């Protein structure tokens, strides 16, 4: 597909509760494409897949992609990003090949007037995340989910992760990583990352959580520190938190309010996960559907009210629902998901304070392997990270009914 000549759009700005580009309102239906920066590291085949998928998204009006910058740490934990795809294999040492993959993605986005929201690190283990810095600094092995021997529990994980916010060497090492990324110049087009309009925003971390109540003050201080660090280097791009909402602080809304009230945070984020948050059990999506919609509506309204009080935009940057009957196979029914997407998109359309949304997640042309539930080395990346059932929340290019819903709203938001 030949791309036409174009004048690249400018930087996304905030004016009250809305985004603008070049003085014009900017609202969007976007997607999560966490592995987007990794595809070009798979040679010409990966580059062709990336271009095919970006063209598909552009054709359907999806031009805002939420992407992981890079994974941290080497590990034998099989549900994690594979070791050869890790940006930071050791503290302070970086894999140039992974950054050239991100260079390639940003260059292709610029050609299509598409935007990326880039998150630096992660609360969760599937990309290393902040637990990796604890491991590097002598705090022992993280209690991984799905580990054998009964070592894992939610309480053990919370206790472990909460230590990050009082580990100064850990926080210093993450600062080094963030500065490394922000000071980069794209090798393909010569643009400094801080000068690249293909980047809409930076995110401090995917789904920040203090994990324990005692850690809240240190957590809030760390979020403020990182936001100031990013803005001290990059004056052009927006910055946000990556927060799920008040569920991340055991429904203490004041924590959510404080981290988003920071002068360096430009907009608010929320995530909506009916399955993870037990709004339905097992495969009972149909039976619990009213509960799902009622709960989602209340969650959106609660956080939107905070955004309005702060006079900042809000983005619903993650939301997903399994396929009907909880199967993973492309071609099976997505009736409930389509209806749920329609519900979320209508909230965006009818509430100007919601500036955009990113559904989870685009799987493109990849497909689950029959008879295999979880990702393994050598498999194609798709919307579900390695620790999740492959195809669980993925939207494939072949999901025609879902794309009809998506395209209906991308047209209206134009």
UniProtKB/TrEMBL annotation:
Signal peptide per UniProt: none
SUPFAM superfamilies: (Trans)glycosidases
Protein name as catalogued: mannan endo-1,4-beta-mannosidase
GO annotation terms (biological process): polysaccharide catabolic process
Domain Glycoside hydrolase family: start-end pairs: 10-413
PANTHER family linked: GLYCOSIDE HYDROLASE FAMILY 5 DOMAIN-CONTAINING PROTEIN, PTHR31451
Keyword Hydrolase: yes
Alphabetic keyword roster: Glycosidase, Hydrolase
Presence of the UniProt keyword Transcription regulation in the record: no
Native organism: Mucilaginibacter gotjawali
Enzyme class: hydrolase
Gene3D superfamilies in the cross-refs: Glycosidases
């Amino acid at each position: 597909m030949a791309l036409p000549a174009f004048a690249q759009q400018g930087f996304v700005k905030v004016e009250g509760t809305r985004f603008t580009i070049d003085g014009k309102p900017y609202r969007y239906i976007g997607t999560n494409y966490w592995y987007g920066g990794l595809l070009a590291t798979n040679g010409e085949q990966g580059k062709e897949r990336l271009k095919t998928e970006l063209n598909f998204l552009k054709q359907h009006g999806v031009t805002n992609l939420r992407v992981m910058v890079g994974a941290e740490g080497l590990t034998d934990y099989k549900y994690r990003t594979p070791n050869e795809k890790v940006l930071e294999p050791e503290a302070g040492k970086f894999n140039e090949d992974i950054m050239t993959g991100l260079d390639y993605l940003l260059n292709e986005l610029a050609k299509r007037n598409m935007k990326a929201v880039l998150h630096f690190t992660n609360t969760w283990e599937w990309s290393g995340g902040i637990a990796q810095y604890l491991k590097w600094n002598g705090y022992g092995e993280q209690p991984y989910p799905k580990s054998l021997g009964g070592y894992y529990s939610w309480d053990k994980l919370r206790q472990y992760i909460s230590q990050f916010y009082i580990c100064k060497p850990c926080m210093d090492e993450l600062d080094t990583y963030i500065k490394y990324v922000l000071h980069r110049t794209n090798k393909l087009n010569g643009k400094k990352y801080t000068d690249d309009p293909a980047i809409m925003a930076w995110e401090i971390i995917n789904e920040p959580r203090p994990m324990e109540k005692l850690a809240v003050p240190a957590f809030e201080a760390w979020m403020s520190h990182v936001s100031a660090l990013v803005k001290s280097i990059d004056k052009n791009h927006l910055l946000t938190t990556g927060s799920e909402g008040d569920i991340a602080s055991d429904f203490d809304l004041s924590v959510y309010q404080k981290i988003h009230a920071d002068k360096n945070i430009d907009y608010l984020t929320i995530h909506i996960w009916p399955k993870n948050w037990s709004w339905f059990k097992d495969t009972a999506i149909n039976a619990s559907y009213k509960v799902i919609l009622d709960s989602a509506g209340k969650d959106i309204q609660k956080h939107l009210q905070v955004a309005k009080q702060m006079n900042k935009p809000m983005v619903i940057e993650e939301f997903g629902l399994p396929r009907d009957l909880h199967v993973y196979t492309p071609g099976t029914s997505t009736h409930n998901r389509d209806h749920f997407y329609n519900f979320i998109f209508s909230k965006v359309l009818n509430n100007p304070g919601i500036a955009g949304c990113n559904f989870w997640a685009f799987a493109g042309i990849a497909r689950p392997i029959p008879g295999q539930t979880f990702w393994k080395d050598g498999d194609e990346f798709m919307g579900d990270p390695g620790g999740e059932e492959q195809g669980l929340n993925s939207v494939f290019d072949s999901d025609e009914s879902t794309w009809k819903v998506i395209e209906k709203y991308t047209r209206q938001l134009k």
